[in-house]
Amino acid sequence: MRYDLIIFDNDGVLVDSEPISNTILAAYLTELGFPTSYEDSIRDYMGSAMHRIHDLIQERTGRVLPADFDDAFHARVFAAFERELQPVAGAADVLAKLVADGVPYCVASSGSHERIRVGHRTTGLDEWFEEEWVFSSQDVGRGKPAPDLFLYAAERMGVAPERCAVVEDSPLGVQAARAAGMDVYGFTAMTPEERLQGATALFSDMAQLRELLG
């Protein structure tokens, strides 16, 4: 099937940010008195909007995170991005092929607009994205697994949901894409295949994705 729009998740799909951000998140939560391992962070928070972190901590402990938690966490993450962040291998090649084939694309991320832009600027992927092709959970209020973000991106790009394909690497993202009525391709570089059940197809490197998208 030739799609009319490819919607990319950002963290872990375009930029290799998940190891960095989840290492920092686990350490910061532990520092605040909420013991969290790197594996815990990947399992519970990968692919989620910031509000999910607050919600799960309160649900599990009855306590709330500090008012400045988001700002402090992002400051640490952005500093690490500037030092360490790399694009996902082959991501730019996929974007180049979509451009060559005339297939529209965009990014729809649980991360903030600032986080997306910092990551793209640091890795050089900013040259591939116009401002109006970048969507964040900030735009809709509810993050994945709600379908709102993907539906919003499709609407803004002028494409019906059933003509869209989503590229995701988290269970929450796969759930959101399916709820939006979209095909979804699950990237297994960091996530075991069994956690991406429901995906239209799975792939482990970007060369495979180029083939899957035709």
From TrEMBL:
Keywords associated with the record: Hydrolase, Magnesium, Metal-binding
Gene Ontology terms, MF aspect: hydrolase activity
Cofactors named for this entry: Mg(2+)
Record has Protein biosynthesis as a keyword: no
InterPro entries: Beta-PGM-like, HAD-like_sf, HAD-SF_hydro_IA, HAD_sf, PGP-like_dom2
Pfam families in UniProt: Hydrolase
Name the record gives this protein: HAD family hydrolase
